[in-house]
Amino acid sequence: MIEWIGGRHHLIELSLPLLGLLIMFGLSKVVDTNRSKRYFVSGFSCWFGFELLIGLEQGTLVSVPSLVGIIGSILLLLGFLGFTIYGFLTLWSLRDTSTSLSP
After folding, report:
1. pTM surpassing 0.85?
2. Residues in Cβ contact with 11 at an 8 Å cutoff, skipping those fewer than 6 apart
3. Measured CA angle at 52 (ends 48, 57), to 5 deg
4. By three-state DSSP, how is residue 7 classified?
């Protein structure tokens, strides 16, 4: 079953974005992340989709056509980068407003 997603190497690579998602959900219980949580969760989801698509393309269960795999992986990678950058910009703007409100 592990060969379906490209072997043990891709299983480990899939665990990294899942760990990031778990950390984001755990942090939201401890720290007030405001709006930035949804961008980071979307970014980690895009990263997970990217790794899953690459693993499925190299695996034995589903043969993804190479053009669809390339375009899909590029879009998911751009989505990850875009959501992560926008999440950091949201955190940065919240930091600026919180420092201007303190006496």
Report:
1. no
2. 2, 5, 55
3. 155
4. coil
